[in-house]
Amino acid sequence: MSEKQTVSVALIGYQFMGKAHSHAYRDLNFYFDNPLKAELKVIVGRNEASVKEAQEKFGFESYETDWRNVINREDIDVIDIVTPNHTHAEIAIAAAEAGKHIITEKPLALNVEEAKRMLEAVRKNGVKHMICHNYRYVPAVQFAKKLIEDGKLGRIFHYRANYLQDFIVDPNFPLVWRLKKEVSGSGALGDIGAHSLDLARYLIGEFDEIVATMETFIKERPIGEMTGGLSAKGDTSQMGEVTVDDAVTVLARFKNGALGTFEATRFATGNRNKNKFEINGEKGSIRWDMEHMNFLEVYFADDEIGEQGFRLVNCTEEEHPYVGAYWPAGHIIGYEHTFIHLIDAFFRGIASDTQPTPNFEDGVINQRILEAIEQSAEEKRWVKI
Amino acid sequence: MSEKQTVSVALIGYQFMGKAHSHAYRDLNFYFDNPLKAELKVIVGRNEASVKEAQEKFGFESYETDWRNVINREDIDVIDIVTPNHTHAEIAIAAAEAGKHIITEKPLALNVEEAKRMLEAVRKNGVKHMICHNYRYVPAVQFAKKLIEDGKLGRIFHYRANYLQDFIVDPNFPLVWRLKKEVSGSGALGDIGAHSLDLARYLIGEFDEIVATMETFIKERPIGEMTGGLSAKGDTSQMGEVTVDDAVTVLARFKNGALGTFEATRFATGNRNKNKFEINGEKGSIRWDMEHMNFLEVYFADDEIGEQGFRLVNCTEEEHPYVGAYWPAGHIIGYEHTFIHLIDAFFRGIASDTQPTPNFEDGVINQRILEAIEQSAEEKRWVKI
Amino acid sequence: MSEKQTVSVALIGYQFMGKAHSHAYRDLNFYFDNPLKAELKVIVGRNEASVKEAQEKFGFESYETDWRNVINREDIDVIDIVTPNHTHAEIAIAAAEAGKHIITEKPLALNVEEAKRMLEAVRKNGVKHMICHNYRYVPAVQFAKKLIEDGKLGRIFHYRANYLQDFIVDPNFPLVWRLKKEVSGSGALGDIGAHSLDLARYLIGEFDEIVATMETFIKERPIGEMTGGLSAKGDTSQMGEVTVDDAVTVLARFKNGALGTFEATRFATGNRNKNKFEINGEKGSIRWDMEHMNFLEVYFADDEIGEQGFRLVNCTEEEHPYVGAYWPAGHIIGYEHTFIHLIDAFFRGIASDTQPTPNFEDGVINQRILEAIEQSAEEKRWVKI
Amino acid sequence: MSEKQTVSVALIGYQFMGKAHSHAYRDLNFYFDNPLKAELKVIVGRNEASVKEAQEKFGFESYETDWRNVINREDIDVIDIVTPNHTHAEIAIAAAEAGKHIITEKPLALNVEEAKRMLEAVRKNGVKHMICHNYRYVPAVQFAKKLIEDGKLGRIFHYRANYLQDFIVDPNFPLVWRLKKEVSGSGALGDIGAHSLDLARYLIGEFDEIVATMETFIKERPIGEMTGGLSAKGDTSQMGEVTVDDAVTVLARFKNGALGTFEATRFATGNRNKNKFEINGEKGSIRWDMEHMNFLEVYFADDEIGEQGFRLVNCTEEEHPYVGAYWPAGHIIGYEHTFIHLIDAFFRGIASDTQPTPNFEDGVINQRILEAIEQSAEEKRWVKI
């Protein structure tokens, strides 16, 4: 174990996701026998005071205020991008050209064109790439995937997903970067809907066509900025236009014939982070909800009649993906662990010279769906994926 | 009380809904101080042996095998129509012209044109009319309505509803009348989706426009017939084409600006009769599920921070609609009670010469939405309501 | 069916339980093919205005104000006793001597001595007798019984039951008959604890020994009387001593080696009528809760590892006891239906000349346990049953 | 932050709890602004291969195979004891005499006499001491404590707790140290029941008297040893006697007049680690369950009538203890985080020269209750605490 190889990481960005990624690098080898271990070389942010504080807290060796200063450093193996969405493409392409492995937050980019250029860059330069759809790495979700692949649900009829938040219901919540199209690309759609769409692809396969509608319930907000993961402060004397969606609803048809419904909203009062899905197949069904992420509700149609019912499976057994590395059955894990699993997959990809998933290919497809949804909402028609 | 006036009822049809209605007439005055009481005069069905059995079991004075024989009888005050959908219009119009009060199962008719003629007939003849959207009469649902009307949820952003069943997932479930367009008009859409659409109108208001898609997962089935509420037997040697939808998904925009998502399916394995909705408003949210019909989950945004959460309200208190007539708080009621409340409203309408709701006007609007959904699914476009 | 034999019923008492029993007689033959049907002959109560109102509402042919006037009437087959507990013995013994079949509310009597005399009387006179532990007749509970009898849980290790109410937490709730030892025998113990104890006996077998403690949290209350099932009004200017327990907790050992814990209280704020139990066996476990009475949570240890979990079984299928008589799967029933099933069993006992259960023998055993619990609480020691 | 003082830790033991503690030391400063940070100096275990593996995995600088070699080392500030229970006293007393701060797993010792000697030692030597009742440090539990202290529940009537596990239901689960009285002191009682008892004391106050019973369902098991947190392997050819309880049930009276019921068992099939409690007060109630540790169910009696119900509070808001250090509201944490909070409190105690809680005083009281329970079970009588 002492002969473990080290991967040097430069983290571009340091807020909500910066913290989640940093923690994952630190905890990875405590729990998992990954062949690689991270060396937290440098963290990058434009605000020097803030990035310095993050550097100390997260345990990086140094900090920088301009990502261009680190992208070509020879002592860096991985560029980890957790900045706002409009910067992903430039940084990722530069990193690829510098021969760095890349992991980036979702959505991959502002649009399909950018996303494709990013994919092209990582392909051309032969680096490993990953996009942080961390919910794929919830043990219960991976177990759902296994059940589906094992044919335990049979032919899939329905996929229904909601991603419900409520952090901007208050009209005084300020106009932060997440609410500006030029920075974030879209609103609830790209921020949380993207996760639901990715999970659907992961679990039951590719989309065929969609129709969608989007709404911005509060059109103007006070100018302001994020102060934490999903918190912010603003100045109500200055108002600005919200240029992204507050909510999006989608009907989908999948290539396998299944019907899908999707909803992503930041206006579902009482739901802080309700990311859930239900899948109905001919032989069984599955329900899952991130607020109870350790549990999977599973129904098998061939259980004895009279004894049929959704089983509440606490996915904390040795048999369930990843959790054997933690605690005895019945002892739950939390949100942050999804990132550990994702980094575990990323490093295994690097170590074994194979592409981990989800990667930029998934990012491009996801971006295509996001763009189709925006197009559908605008043109009020079905759009092929 | 002994001077209670009697209403003579002729029930056309005697299966699932016939039983539910018969029971409601019988139990009404046991629980409620309704000014009227039912006299179960005659029950009508084409199969003499079956209708005779129903007559005895349900407690009707007599039976008939042709509804035409009862529609003009002077000793009949109410015609209650629980036959398959394609017969509603003819019976209802004849009943209206005979001056009878009418209560009919949903959906009102096979199409808007029929529905309008029915409405015209009851209006012209000045009779009371009602459509059996019984879920409006769940105490928890009526309490939800009250909360919304009292402004406890504020502006409404979202309405999301699923009506999930699974009784025809088996491809050998036969081609019964519920699966034939000429008899039932549509499949999951009119049978269960109609309930969800009506609840949405009742709770948050009128639809503005919709887009929808429909699917028939199993295209051919053995010829057969219903043997009970949702059970059937068939003959696999003879196959026939399923001409209705197995599932329908809908996006909606309401006139008040809210977004809606709807799904009705008979292919949601593990869900026997999962009729549920969630409503998100600026000041609160509500969740409800017919399988746990006595409970309403309610969230108030102005609860103290840290103590906020969905409250599981057992709607069995004196303060909740209807249930004061039953048992002490905490003692639940069931599916059949919704029909008692509906008949209670119907009879109060007759007694006070006012139109109960939901009535044929609601039926026409509902039919218009059903038709718009079918049109949208066929033409793959948004349709105004 | 028209040749169904009639059983003439005299109901002694007319409040909460009077209503529940009356309803059951009325609905029995609507749902079930019982060989007998009830004729509601006479209802008895001391307050003439109230009993007259009940007579009309519940549909009895006549009323009386003294039970002695009906007990020997030749046209009466069944005496149904729903009066306060201190009157059970006298009425039941008189009824037995008059050769009437008897059904009585629980607890059977004020003490074991009374209970034994009652049992002796019914035995000597060869009448059918039943005690209304209606929770045995919840379909989910009967299905639990079946699972246990089929060996699906294997050897039983644990039985834990709570019966939690909160209707007298307010110190101004008056001193009604339920709070007076001379009328009710005991408080939470006999009123609700008795149900839990009976369910335990029904499901896993006889008690061996118990230790218990009892508490009266509010020692004095305003004088007053019941105004409904569990509601009351009082006069705070006059106070009286509460002479029964507000709460009781019990440890038990069963003859089969299982451990039991029981708790009955009227001071469990927020729990209106939370009657629940959990059973753990070597091969499986069961959980049930009357507020969600249609559901049984079932765990099977031999489900595949990784897919194990409590199944939420909605006991509304044809395979589940009694419910096939009602509605399609997924359509729930309520509290009142338990009495229909119990009366169904009572009448079948009469028709087939066999003793239904639970009957006075169960009542005597239950009374012995109640008495042992009081003794244990008083003497602070374990008591053999 | 760079001037943070370092605390050197020697960890005695390296299995389930060793891992949990090690992780807590590592993650503490990532999330919390604790004035101190841990230096993981040395880990101790008798099996050299295993402890070496643990040293590398957990990140300790070195390892030792005899705790006596580290107890007096000048470079050690803290002795952390996670060995089997029979070794706690000797190690802790030696550590106290060496002037080390001590944190030890529960139960404190094998008996009250040992526990008292330990308390005496830490007092005499003026070191900080803590006992790892980590469940006190669940944010939802701390929030429950706050609600109670703020008087939101009013006078407390009931405390009911279950700690249900099922890892030894299989009679072939071997006779590991946890099942030997001379090593572990007791079985379910000391291992998990001790947690429930501590939570009760923490939340509502001191015990007055108890009565209890204990049972060993499987008297003989194959000889074997633990292979993980709660897993083991054995050799069925050699059987040995189980000398601890498989299950214990307890009735309690608290000094404040509340009634308590407790149950701890390893034979509750289907319950992997179901640690739960419910508290009923005159003004409100609380329910909590470790499997859903982030949630607290809270009922307030003064909520508007009709809108009353248990609120499902996701304790992940800034307002809830500790969780502000992690992720935005709605993003849950897991089992391991309880140890981070506990270590945070331990280090703050060291830094500020104040005794953290729970400490050896709590351990002594807890031990007294454990001993009283054993005495009560043996002598079959109530025992004063």
Note down, in words, how this protein is organized.
The first copy, chain A, is of the alpha/beta class and 385 residues long. The first copy, chain A, contains nine helices and 17 strands. In chain A, helix 3 (88-97) runs parallel beside helix 4 (112-125), helix 4 (112-125) runs antiparallel to helix 9 (360-379) and helix 7 crosses helix 9 (360-379). Chain A is globular and about 65 Å long. The model of chain A has no long low-confidence stretch (mean pLDDT 96). The interface between A and D is large, with 44 and 44 residues. Strand 16 of chain B pairs antiparallel with strand 16 of chain D. Chains A, B, C, D: It comes from Gracilibacillus marinus. Chains A, B, C, D: Residues 8-131 form the Gfo/Idh/MocA-like oxidoreductase N-terminal domain.
Précis, in short:
Four copies of one chain form a homotetramer. The first copy, chain A, has helices spanning 16-31, 48-58, 88-97, 112-125, 139-149, 181-184, 188-204, 337-352, 360-379; strands at 5-12, 36-44, 62-64, 78-81, 101-104, 129-131, 156-164, 207-215, 220-226, 232-241, 247-254, 259-265, 274-281, 284-289, 295-300, 310-314, 383-384.
List keywords for this structure.
homotetramer, 385 residues, alpha/beta, Dihydrodipicolinate Reductase, domain 2, 2 domains, nine-stranded mixed sheet, 9 helices, globular, NAD(P)-bd_dom_sf (chains A, B, C, D), Gfo/Idh/MocA family protein (chains A, B, C, D)
